[in-house]
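Can't paste images in this forum, so I'm doing it all in text. The chain is below; anyone willing to post the predicted structure tokens underneath?
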Amino acid sequence: MSNNGYLGKTSIGVLILKAGQLEAVPPLLTVRVPRNGRLIFVLKKRYSRYINGGGTPMIYAFGEVMMRLEAPHFQKLQQASELLVSYSGTGVNILSGLSHFGHRTALVTKLPTNSIGIAALAHLQSLGIETSHIVRGGDTLGLYFLERGFGGRASAVTYTDRSNSSFCTSECEEYDFANLQKSSVIHFCGISLAVSSHTRQLTLAVAKKAKAQGLTISFDCNYRPKLWGDDSTHAKSSYEEMLHLADICFMTEKDARFILELPTTQTEKEKQIEDLLPQVADAYKIQTIAGTIRDTTSISAQTLKGFIVREGTVTYSHVHNLHVLDRIGGGDGFVSGILHGLHTKVEPNNLIDFATAAGVLAHTTVGDSPVSSLADIKRFTEQTIDIER
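Text version of the structure:
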């Protein structure tokens, strides 16, 4: 037995196929055999590029993971004797959409060190989201209860004890920004500004660090009056601070009017978009602004139209008729489509049509997280409405 208490150790190397040639990779792993018999695999850091996708750009999101508890079969909570469990969050949903488009994605968050945290971690991995940047600690995960609407009855969401979750009580210093790829995108959601003053300061601090490291900042305003409550007086200054950091922003004319308090003489939605959002882009030096126009006939029957603002020009998508199966996460599907299009340098007309189609399809799958592939969206845009055999 060696002096360090191990029965022995060995190293493992591999051959990889690179540009049609076999390349020998020096030992990647040291395998140690301790006295308890459980093998310990130690990755040599300088070779991690061989297994993490090499130079393939990563897309990150910073935000909370929540447990979704849904009353099944359109029941109200007082009728339900069981609840359906899944895990969600704006960042989770957007990264899920992107991972299903073939991108490498990773969530930066904090999860509790208990069975709930383990279950959430497993769910993220099942969506194709990398979890190496997740911090563990605490014992609480944010929860929300969903009562799905039907006909004229709107869906209802109830949050519980969210501000005390592992993520919402975490500190900026807990996250390791040194290992984030410098040329990557990191997405933030305005909900994190609203949960509490602590999460607001945390989100702003993380965004500033990411910006200083050269990452592209994506920000979704996602203004929720219910979450801001009596603290809404801080909304304008907080959003302005984030907008000054943002390179990509998701917002509507309502955000410009009611959060930023920009005046307009226009009365139609599209005219207000064309009047206000290029002003926002110019004032905050934002490269891209995107959003959707939604018209609702009933809970399940709606229309959706996307828009994108680049270099002062507003480009619109086709109008889509929506038959909604699950409303939550639909907007995140749109965001994932925009980020995919920007990442792959799609021109604005095709980009906005793709992103809007991604948002529409996200309304047609169960759960918050989009799971449509590029092939699914291609079939949808080609209007092949039939059973695939």
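The first helix runs from residue 90 to 100. Residues 1-6, 15-20, 35-54, 384-389 have pLDDT under 50 and may be disordered.
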